[in-house]
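Regression report. Comparing outputs from two consecutive submissions.

Submission 1:
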Amino acid sequence: MSADQYCTTVTAQNIDALESLGLYALRAVWREHVGEPPILRSASLLRALLAWRLQEAAFGGLDAETRRRLKAGGRQMTEGLDLGDGAQIKREWRGQIETVVVEADGFRWRERTYKSLSAVATAMTGTQWNGPRFFGLRSPGNGARSTV
């Protein structure tokens, strides 16, 4: 389906039709319905943004209260904050059980304190990682466990 064939009425079927469009066609649909498209190289990201914008135009966006709450933001949670001081996060890495201890000022691993779990995971692996994901705090059952 080309951008020219894209129907202007927003329905679930039309949103599904975005799946068949490539990056250039998605940009053309964006230009037609929203304005100048963002400079993105990811068709999947542009597709998701476009689906939101088209639904917003057809059905209305967020109400004023929701927009206000999003603008105000919430309290930012520090990684591992809910574990409490002294909690141990264990992860097997290269055949060794590595233990990270949650402290008031960060996370202690091998006698050094790091500001975030991501910094610990990066130091441990030599590769940038999302700390909570690496240590299994975001998706249970991937080999990491936490003990208090």
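Submission 2:
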Amino acid sequence: MKKNASAILPCLHLTWLLAFTLVASALLAQKTVVNIVPNPGFERFSGAPIGWSYKGSYFGEVVKYWFSATTASPDVYGQGVHVPMDWAEKGFGAQKARIGKSMAGLTLFGCTNGKPHCREYIEIQLSEPLVIGQAYYVEFWTTHLSKSLQINNLGAYFSVSEIKRSTDEILIREAQVKAPDIIAAPGGKWVKVSGQFVAKYEAEFILIGNFSDDTNTLSVAPREDSYNYAYYYIDDVLVKKIPPFRPIPIKPDDLTKQSLEVGKTIQLKHIYFEFDKDELMPRSYIELNKLLKIMRENPKLSIEIAGHTDALGDDNYNLDLSRRRALSVEKFLLQNKINKNRLHSHGEGEAKPIASNDTDEGRAQNRRVEFVVIRK
């Protein structure tokens, strides 16, 4: 019996169409850029800028999620920022942002010339940790003050933990990506610093700056009236995975591996808030989505969310802050269609420490959010 050729052709057509669709989808997925740097262009502000400050903490108070790694004072430029006249006359703030209206400014060289705050660093927590063995692409854009010295070594360093020094010291580190050659950007032209690397450890933070001392940094004065220091602007920071993608490993103490027993207290280990606020940091959403998954897979599960603080500050203030932070976690679940009847939240303030409040490490452990299983 002869087969009907016309019946075979549609099947072949569907097979090729399916194969083409799968290949196209795979290529599209590989081209999708997922930047794991929150607020990469410094466009989002935490608060209204009030001018310039010579305190390192000011940068973090103004630019959302970013902060200074030392007490040296990186500068922020953007809508509403007023550059003091004596600095504006030197050219500070004359540069336009590469995209948008905001950018950062860093002093990167000049310690041996007596420049105060001769090294400035900006730092931010990534929205997800680096995966060991995963290849990453990094880029950011830079240009310099017209009378700045021109230097090399401007780069990006990835750190496992937050770096926050109580001095304006130079941070000597081996940057994963840096500019080996002197960066010259005449006429305010924006220049890209970029590179690739394979993660050797689970870094959570990226820092941008010059991680070498003056002796090991090349410098050149492009004009006779150049200043005796280097000042560069930074904009549009990008960190993304390079295919093939490795998943974030699930550790033995992962939230998804916790047994759900009535009365059991379970800590949400990767919940972070802006300093002294109840707003969740981008890094928190990996843990929050795990909690959401647990709630969806266990439709009878009810929980009591509790916020905790360290012992620094006023008791009543800490109690209110812990309550608001617990409520932020509850609101996330509510926004994702978890029934209000299954959720309760409250604050404990500093009343239930799990470590000493006499050390930075202990206080960090005490600042936490956890939940108790009420019903399952």
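Expected: both submissions complete independently.
Actual: both completed, but the second showed a warning that disappeared on reload.
Relevant detail on submission 2: Residues 1-30 have pLDDT under 50 and may be disordered.
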